[in-house]
Amino acid sequence: MVETTRGPTLEPGLRGLVTDLASDQRAFKNVPWSKAMMWLFLLSDIFIFACFLVGYMQVRITTTVAWPNASDVFALELGGRHVPLLLIAIMTFILISSSGTMALAVKFGYEQRRLATGGLLILTALLGASFVGMQAFEWTKLIGEGVRPWSNPWGAEQFGAAFFLITGFHGTHVSIGVLFLIIMAVKVMRGSLAAGHPGFLTRRRGRYEMVETLGLYWHFVDLVWVFIFAFFYLW
Amino acid sequence: MGEREYDASSHAPPAEVEEMELVHPRTFLGKYIWSQDAKVIAVQYALTATAIGLVALVLSLLMRLQLGFPNSLALIDPGSYLQYVTMHGMIMVVYLLTAIFLGGFGNYLIPLMCGARDMAFPYLNMLSYWVYLASVLILVAGFFVGGGSSGAGWTLYPPQSITPGTPGADAGIILMLVSLAVFIIGFTMGGLNYVVTVLQGRARGMTLMRLPLTVWGIFMATVMALLAFPALLVAVLMMLLDRLLGTSFFMPEMLSMGEGGEHRGGSPLLFQHLFWFFGHPEVYIVALPAFGIVSDLIAVHARKNIFGYRMMVWAIIIIGALSFVVWAHHMYVSGMSPYFGFLFATTTLVIAVPTAIKVYNWVLTLWRGNIHLTLPMLFAIGFLFTFVNGGLSGLFLGNVTVDVPLSDTYFVVGHFHMVMAVAPVLVIFGAIYHWYPKVTGRLLDTTLGKIHFWMTFLGTYAIYYPMHFMGLQGVPRRYYAYGETAFVSDSVQSLNAFITIAAFVVALAQLLFLYNLAWSYFRGREAGPNPWRATTLEWQTPHTPPRHGNFGEELPVVYRWPYDYSVPGVKADFIPQNVPPEAVEREAPVGRGGGS
């Protein structure tokens, strides 16, 4: 990275902010291109999830039939007892924990510790994969109980439609993330990032910043889950 | 800052952005087909968009034929007429205008005007084009499947669009929705590139406030597209599920042949909100690049700095932001709360303020300018007239009470064709006449161009002006035939015949334009590196057309804003952006004392 020169003083307030953003060559100093791109992509992705959730809220409000009760639907029978939200609590815990291991992987990545970074990336991928696995279990259970995108035994049929669409879309995000975590772990372990080997398709040189960029995506997927969790399981 | 920025700094700031490693292709395929060079991708985008745009043009002629001379062509039946309406609208708005402004001009001009080697992510950029091509092919496939393409109108409102009986409700609508989803994926790949390149990959000395307005317009439009297309993607996915799996996001319970359908409890209004949350920004996604390009065309060909550069930039940003809070003015007759209508009428009218700032600034740039009536200038002036005319009818439609009787009449058709079809297309033509010499090294033929301009400009007025009067009479749009009604006078039919003839004349002019493009590529006059004596960086490249990497060995260093035309006390009437202050030849300080 080339050192930046920035004016020693900026005007206070909005004017200073605008001058700073509009400054020479780069609007965001010391932000690599890939990171800027990921933030931008996430901004766009936020709008996708926001539209999904707003759409879900709207069909839930306007539908003519009662909405199924979340604490009944998302419950497990454990030793004869009815435990609401157990599975989903575990899933949420796992996904949030995976954000922690990801953050550590980024830290060790910048410290150029190959084994620690690679190991944590694999651990993150495992946590992510187990999340997807439990989601598959939950889908199977609900499908077994007769929930379909077009109908369900308890009430408004939009329940199944919104549930499968939104959790499916999120699960796809997690699965893609797991795939890239594995690819990145292999790259880290092989030393491609430290040596700056060009990528297979894009021919861009590897750098440890890529771990952070992937981390941004992963944290975003976790954050979105918190909203889906709140709107689907707690409402 | 502002007008005096050109002598603000004489030193070149140190390089912050690292040199890019470009993948130089060796084979023909790598250079022209699987190219990662933004300039080649731009031409690919532009040619594909033009090709599919010609299909849409033919569809519009078929519609006009039916309206002007009813039942003269046996292949046009009511169902296929609706299919033409749908495909014409969707192709023109999304696959032609969005693609050519952002994918075409964006790809070509952003790296060159910012002083970059290429887009930030060339591989992603290449993918973007191929995904776009796939979406176009999927869309075109709709013409050939059983039942034909969708006939639900370009807005695809449910329940109409997926209810059996609507043309194309079997397969056409599925292909349309899939194609839109694929387009959005492809566009996102490109859009990320354009924004990151503008934000993070500019040349030394190129601050954001020294960017040409073309780049500002395309940049803001891309940001808006990245935030607006998600709504369309969600709407498309939900409708696909409604159609394929029988879910009921948008579909209410309906009786068909005395029996209940499979859907119940969905919300058709939800689709309209999602669609217009995309659809209204989409208008400005098309308009903002046009605003930016026309600013540059006017400044270059009037040899004057653009009036109020900073205000022009802020107007672009404010229009972009406001366009996200006006969407429901498309839904005044959909059944919304009147308070909602009031809110959206207000925001809609507020957007006229930054737009008016831009129009005044264009006019003030022309004021006492050294106007050269070159082809780009003719089209730029044509744009000004058309845009103001179309904008004025927008004032009627923006007000709820006035809109209600005018809604779904030819007044609406006349309005949006003036403001969003003809006006941006005039800019596209102007921009092609302006930048064709840089892309090919040859100038387009002026005589052919002038014929093209006058036929197009006058012809479109002949087409769309009468539509306003038809709309005031209450002639509904999207109708295949009118039959006997109490309110449509007989003269409407002769007006329709007149419009159809005008439409064919305008279409003929486009053939002339295509001929000009092809002929000039081989036989046109050699242009040289800077035929318009323009200041922006794309005209300062060492080679014309620019090679891969754009600027040869050394990237340019920028010392001034892009509008140094007719600077007082300077010998040349323009100073390119990369000329350092000490290299500017000044006139001897005799005669006119002071100046301004």
Structure summarized in a few sentences:
By secondary structure, chain A is mainly α. In chain A, 69% of the residues lie in helices and 3% in strands. Chain A has a single domain, classed as Cytochrome c oxidase, subunit III, four-helix bundle (Four Helix Bundle (Hemerythrin (Met), subunit A)).
Structure description:
The complex is a heterodimer of chains A (235) and B (596). Chain A is mainly α and 235 residues long. Chain A has helices spanning 13-21, 33-62, 70-73, 86-110, 114-144, 158-190, 192-195, 209-234, and strands at residues 75-78, 81-84. A two-stranded antiparallel sheet of chain A has the order 1-2. In chain A, a hairpin with a 2-residue loop joins strand 1 and strand 2. Chain B folds into 4 domains: 35-205, Up-down Bundle (Cytochrome C Oxidase, Chain A); 212-250 and 266-334, no CATH class; 373-527, no CATH class; 529-596, no CATH class. In chain B, a hairpin with a 2-residue loop joins strand 1 (255-256) and strand 2. In chain B, helix 2 (38-68) packs parallel to helix 4. The model of chain B is unreliable at 1-8 (pLDDT under 50). At the A-B interface, helix 2 and helix 6 of A face helix 5, helix 6 and helix 7 of B.
